[in-house]
Each structure stands twice: as structure tokens, then as C-alpha cells.
Write a structure and sequence with these properties.
single chain; 141 residues; 7-stranded antiparallel β-sheet; two-stranded antiparallel ribbon; 1 helix
Length: 141
């Protein structure tokens, strides 16, 4: 079960250098005038803005794949789903996040939790809404 898509404002964060200098002595470095670039999550995570939406995950069925309750998903509708992709699907009226896979040589939607078995797609009404491109997981709320 998922919440409805919601819009997110662009967010630009400073890109922190891997190594930082703790103190200076002697002549000033020409690199002091260098300003670190910013990390724009929209540029980094969204490849097709016109076909991308955000979704908040709910439940525990995808924990084995690193998707937890409350995580923000970046979903791209322009990607053709392939085996192994995590997809957002509307299956007989229920919105699901599952991994698209073969189970016993049949297409299934599979969870990442042992308590939830594979869901067969044969003879079921299923619409793939998009492929999950990224997951944003917050450690502190």
C-alpha cells in the first residue's frame, strides 16, 4: 500500500569534498577561491523529468530490497520494465511496489520479505505505473 504521488521542490545541497584541509600556513592556495559545486538531487536522480514522479513507500514487503516504510521513491514511467526492476504496479486496483521477476518461468511481482509470496500476473489485471529509479531513505526524522 502506498500514498499518492506528491510534488517535491528542487533541492540543491553542497557537494562536500572527500578530503578537507584542517588548517592553513604559508602562502594562500589558489584553490581557496574554488567554490565547491552543489549536489542537485533532481539532476542526479531524475533523468526524464516529464515522466518522473515521487511516491512514499508504506509497509514492510520490500525491506529485503532496501525499501522501508516512509522511504521516498523516484519513479520513472519512461523506463520499460525488465526482469529484476523494482516497479510500481496497479494490480486489480491495489497499488504495489514489487520486483518484476520470473517465478517458475511465469512473470510475477515479488516482494523482498519472506512473509509475502510472489504474485502471479497471468490472467490478472495489472498496469505498471513506472520503474523505481532511486530510493531516498532518511535515518533521522
Amino acid at each position: 500500500m502506498l500514498s499518492l504521488p506528491h510534488a517535491c521542490a528542487p533541492l540543491a545541497l553542497p557537494l562536500l569534498p572527500v578530503c578537507a584541509q584542517a588548517g592553513f600556513s604559508g602562502f594562500p592556495s589558489p584553490a581557496q577561491d574554488y567554490e565547491s559545486p552543489t549536489l542537485d538531487l533532481n539532476t542526479r536522480l531524475i533523468k526524464n523529468p516529464a515522466t518522473t514522479f515521487y511516491l512514499t513507500a508504506a509497509g514492510e514487503s520490500m525491506q529485503g530490497w532496501g525499501i522501508f516504510h516512509g522511504d521516498l521513491l523516484v519513479v520513472d514511467r519512461s523506463i520499460t520494465p525488465r526482469l529484476g526492476h523494482i516497479v510500481v504496479a496497479l494490480l486489480e486496483g491495489e497499488l504495489l511496489i514489487k520486483r518484476y521477476a520470473l517465478h517458475r518461468n511465469e512473470p510475477h511481482l515479488c516482494s523482498g520479505h519472506p512473509h509475502y509470496g510472489p504474485v502471479a500476473l497471468r490472467e490478472r489485471e495489472c498496469e505498471i505505473w513506472g520503474v523505481v529509479r532511486a530510493v531516498v531513505h532518511e535515518y533521522l526524522s
